Amino acid sequence: MQFASDNWAGASPRVLSAIAAGAAGFAPSYGRDDASAALGEAFSALFEREVAFVLTATGTAANALGLAALCPPDRVVLAHEEAHIVCDEVGAVEFFTHGARLVPIAGPQGKLTEQDVRTALARLTGPLSRGEAPGALSLTQATECGTVYRVEEVAALAALAREAGLAVHMDGARFANAVASLGCRPADITWRAGVDVLSLGGTKNGAMMAEAVIFFDPARAAGLDWRRKRGGHVVSKARLIASQFLALLEEGHWLDLARHANSMASRLAAGLAAMGFRVPWPAEANEVFPILPRAVAARLKANGAIFHSWPIAGLSEAEVPAEDEVLVRLVTSFATTPAEVERFLGIVSSE
Ligand SMILES: Cc1ncc(COP(=O)(O)O)c(C=O)c1O
Question: What is the pTM of this model?
Answer without folding.
Answer: 0.97
